[in-house]
Write the structure tokens for this entry.
Amino acid sequence: MKLLIENLNSYTSSQDLSYLLGDLKGFITSWIKRDQYGTSEGFGYARFESPSEGRKAINRCNGMRMHGKKVKISPIKETPLFIT
């Protein structure tokens, strides 16, 4: 399951997200969306092995403070890629 993590400070790193989520069961990876200059765009993503583990991460971490801001975590609906 892929999660969207919003309301991040510009200096929040992918390692910070890994620190926040890394001890949760099923955590795979996290990353910050950056512009062409390497500056954070204020949001990032995390991936969990299953939807149930992703929902547990949302329940545990949504609204937590990171670098003085409350993070907002929500699921991303992934659609299958069809090749025609």
Summary: The CA atoms of residues 15 and 53 lie 20 Å apart. The radius of gyration is 13 Å. Strands lie at 2-6, 27-34, 40-48, 65-66, 69-70, 72-76. Residues 51-61 form the longest helix (11 residues).
